[in-house]
Amino acid sequence: MSTPELIGRDDELVEEISAPDAEVIVGRSPWQLFWVRFREDKVALASLGVIGLIVLIAIFAPLIVKAIAHPPSAEYPQALDPRFGTPSGPSTTFFFGVDKVGEDVFSRVLYGARVSLEVALISTAIAVAVGVVMGMIAGFYRGVTDTLISRFIDVMLAFPVLLLAMGIASACSFGNGCLHGLIQPGVPTVVAVIAIINWTYIARIIRGQVMSLREKEFVEAARASGAGDIAILFREILPNLVAPIIVYTTLVIPQNILLEAALSYLGVGIGIQQASWGQMLADATPIFNTAWWYFVFPGAALLITVLAFNLLGDGIRDALDPRTVEVT
Amino acid sequence: MVRYAMRRILWGVLMLLVVSAVTFVIFYLLPSGDPAAIRAGRYATPARIAQVRHQLGLDRPIYYQFWLYMKGLVFHFNFGTSFKTNLPVRDTLFARLPVTFSVAIGAVIIWMLIGIPVGVISAIKSRSWLDRATMGASLVAISAPVYWLGLIALFLFAKDIGVIHLFGGANSYVPFTQDPAGWFSSLILPWFVLAAAFTAFYARMVRGNLIETMSEDYIRTARAKGLSERRVIFRHGLRAALTPVVTMAGLDIGALLGGAVLTETVFNIPGIGRLAYDSITGSDLPMIQGTVLFGAFFIITANLIVDILYAFLDPRVRY
Q1: DSSP letter, residue A184
Q2: For position A323, what pLDDT does the model report?
């Protein structure tokens, strides 16, 4: 073998280095590493599958219902007991039975997935966006800005979550909604309430991360090469926050699904126009001892959805190196 | 120490004032509807609504309303008057407090007594079959809506309508001073239902903390000097692993004293949580506002106590 030139490729040398018995070392991006670890986690993969299924059900609920069930808001008095007017249980026509006015519980559970996912995903997205921006500003500028934002977060966290949500939702649920009609009663109010309650947690996490990131060499390098604050925040720091943001988001979605359901259960949620799981559980409460199907199925749907998101969140956190991502 | 405590208390008082102000914004500035119209009732004449508006002071400028509101809160502990019962909100809240306390105390005992041992066993037998099973079950408990668990518990075990007639059902709450046995029986189901998610959460937290603690150097030292594994775990490991648990418990108790809204609602227990629910149904804004303020008061106080205790136990905090 001739001595290879130091610069340029020498096929013979490459061949020698990657000899059959030597282990091939491949460079992997953090995302490849994440995927390799995540792929091993069978529980997380299964929960991802379940979530995919629930999303499909939510999207195609009208088609499914049209094909095999009854419209969600149509009443079928013939399904009620002719003497007492009590609803009938699961059967081949009504898979999950009917509720007290003769509506198909199966269809309503399917449609409930839409409301649940819609509200949880939109409110989480808003909360994360607001929280990340506020956290980045507080952590990056420090000083008075940080004090103002952090103390405001302290105040928000001093409120009891559910009571605050009930308070805002009820204050917004009469008249023309909140802020002179900017936030209408119904879905917008619930989304706003959940977002208001949630942004504080993510802002705190992001603030802590940014405080240490802003001292790193790559930020200094960017500044030395003339980058402004905005460019540093969004081009240099934000990409490094992707992992904690993803972990936090997947862990907070199930909580928000539960919060939406709880608000609907308490009567300050979406309202009765749309079928939602929490609302169904509230309606089922007065007659739960005679119509078990009425509370079992919506509750089970809620449990499965929340559990799937929780398992997925755990899997993603573990795969994204738990040591560097501290989410408590 | 005293200086630190004083500073924390002052900060707590300031927090209370700011929280009151934010509550004012939520209940006086956010709504576009007219509280006077709610107060006056459905069939009130415009003249009557105007009269009510004047009574409530809603026709005054907003800063003057704020001044009256803060003055009432700070000097007279006045939370306003209920729209529905015409009773002072403060008195109603205090009357409901023992009930909410009853609900909270039992749940706390249950989740501490079950959650901590389960977490310790899971940590010791980490990655075993038992650990996986309990951690899986705990995730289910965290994911289940508490009011749904309540309905299932009532359906299965309530004395009046349950499959097995075992414990008091919904509406069966009696004060401890009237009938201790009845009080206990009526609260068993709510206690376990409320404690379910907390138990699971605490078990997971204890497990995580203990596993992390057991990889510390001083644990290796303890093992190296020949201590029994039992002693290493209980004397050295658990002590450090439980500190955050105690902190967390303090904060959770504070939050629960503001009312376990969902549990009290599903079991129809007349505590502060149920009061909040009933007030929502009746659009009783001063009452809802009162429960929010009351809840915040407990959370801030719990935070304060935990912080001061912490500083007392760990001098490093007193910077």
Answers
A1: -
A2: 52
For the domain made up of A34-320, the CATH class stated in words is mainly alpha
Residue B310 — pLDDT band, cuts 50, 70, 90?
confident
Strand partners, A104: A98
Name the residue among A160, A177, A295 with its Cβ closest to that of B299: A160
The secondary element (H helix, E strand) that includes residue B231 is helix B229-231
pLDDT interval class at A5 (50, 70, 90) = very low
The pLDDT of residue A58 is above 70: yes
Q: Is the pLDDT score of A327 beyond 70?
A: no
Name the more confident of A186 and A62: A62
Interface test with B, best of A154, A163, A251 (most B CBs within 10 A): A163
Q: Which residue of A has its CA nearest to B155?
A: A289
Domain residue ranges in chain B? 2-76, 89-313
Using left for φ > 0, alpha for ψ between -120 and 50, and beta otherwise, residue B145 falls in beta
Residue of B19, B28, B29, B32 for testing the chain A interface, max A β-carbons within 10 Å: B32
Q: What is the dihedral of CA B71, B76, B77, B83, to 10 degrees?
A: -80
Band (pLDDT 50/70/90 cuts) for residue A175 is: low
Residue A281, both tokens: 């559980």
B89-313: CATH topology: MetI-like fold (1.10.3720)
Phi, psi (rounded to 5 degrees) for B172: -95, 5
Nearest C-alpha neighbor of A307 from the set B143, B178, B242, B35: B143
Nearest C-alpha neighbor of B112 from the set B185, B193, B203, B191: B203
Q: What is the model's pTM?
A: 0.88
CA distance B226 to chain A (A): 30
- pLDDT bucket at A89, cuts 50 / 70 / 90: confident
Kindly state the tokens that stand for A46: 């299964």
Among candidate residues B284, B191, B280, B221, the one with its CA nearest the CA of residue A265: B280
B1 vs A229, residue with greater confidence: A229
When scoring B148, B160, B204, B287 by the number of chain A Cβ atoms within 10 A, the one with the most, hence best to mutate, is: B148
With H, G, I as helix, E, B as strand and everything else as coil, classify residue A69: coil
Mean pLDDT of A274-301: 90
For residues A319 and B157, what is the distance between their CA atoms, to the nearest angstrom?
Answer: 42
Name the minimum distance, in Å, from the CA of A266 to any CA of chain B. 7
* Residue B165 CB burial class (10 angstroms; 0-12, 13-18, ≥19): exposed
pLDDT (average), residues A107-116: 92
* Shortest CA gap A137–chain B (Å): 22
Selected residues 165-224 of chain A with any CB under 8 Å from a CB in chain B? 166-168, 170-172, 174-181
Which ipTM value was assigned to this complex? 0.90
Residue pair B81/B89 in contact (Cβ under 8 Å)? The answer is: yes
Residue A2 is predicted with a pLDDT of 44
Query: For residues A199 and A153, is the Cβ–Cβ distance under 8 A?
Result: no
Element (H, E) at A235: none
